[in-house]
Design brief:
The longest helix is centred in the C-terminal third of the chain and has 14 residues. The strands form 2 sheets. Strands 3, 4, 5, 6, 7, 8, 9 and 10 form an 8-stranded mixed sheet that branches. Strand 1 and strand 2 form a beta hairpin. It contains 8 helices and 10 strands. It binds S-adenosylmethionine. The site of S-adenosylmethionine has 22 residues, from helix 3 and helix 8.
């Protein structure tokens, strides 16, 4: 699978990946990681967690992927076609403020995304999905209806998801991702958190 460090693209095979993960119990996957700030902050704050940021777009990742943290890795991959090397490894998934085809797959209950996430998961994996009003409006949904649609899709897939919880401007301001900050100071500082687990 392709990983990125600064501007360099490298190949990492399963043996090398397992070597890097060997001392870590908790493995966090941040899907649609953007510039990778959230993944970096989490890895920096929790040195005993291993954090993997995944995005299909490499350009935004140049800065944070230069970081030399031993517990941080950035993979270039599409959410609908996650690398097989991750099979059975991940204990927690975050998807923060998705847009584009990642958001569309959540709204459509895309089986490639749902089964892909299940296949990289441990026996039980927890999940947190944060959705923002602007991205849902661009996709043709209100914040409430879009969040309910995704809640229903994931519930139908057998995931145990809590009822959507609102995030206000304060919650967005204190959330450590670039997009959260942008939203907090933008025109529509509202988001929704869907949290739960799947097996
Ligand atoms: C609004 S940004 C959010 C970035 C980051 N999570 C944050 O909070 O700052 C949405 C990200 O989703 C990524 N994305 C969209 N579709 C994707 C897909 N199919 N697979 C992987 N990443 C995708 C985009 O490239 C973009 O970086």
């Amino acid at each position: 699978m392709e990983i990125i460090q600064g501007k360099a693209s490298l190949d990492l095979d399963l043996t090398e990946l397992k070597e890097r993960l060997t001392t870590y119990n908790r493995i966090i996957l941040d899907l649609g990681t953007g510039d990778g700030k959230f993944a970096f902050c989490h890895a920096d704050k929790f040195p005993n967690h291993f954090v993997i940021g995944v995005d299909s777009c490499r350009e935004n990742l140049h800065e944070y992927s230069r970081a030399k943290l031993p517990n941080l890795l950035y993979i270039i991959a599409s959410a609908q076609n996650l690398p097989q090397e991750l099979s059975g490894l991940v204990s927690h998934v975050t998807i923060n403020f998705p847009w584009g085809s990642l958001l569309e797959s959540l709204l459509a209950g895309d089986i490639r995304l749902i089964r892909g996430l299940e296949s990289i998961s441990r026996s039980v994996t927890t999940v947190e999905i944060r959705l923002n009003g602007g991205a849902l409006a661009e996709a043709g949904w209100s914040l409430e209806d879009g969040a309910n649609q995704i809640f229903n899709n994931l519930s139908q897939a057998g995931w145990r998801i809590n009822v959507p919880a609102l995030m206000n401007a304060n919650a967005l301001r204190s959330f450590p991702s670039t997009w959260a900050k942008r939203l907090a100071f933008g025109r529509d500082p509202r988001a929704v958190l869907l949290s739960g687990c799947f097996e």
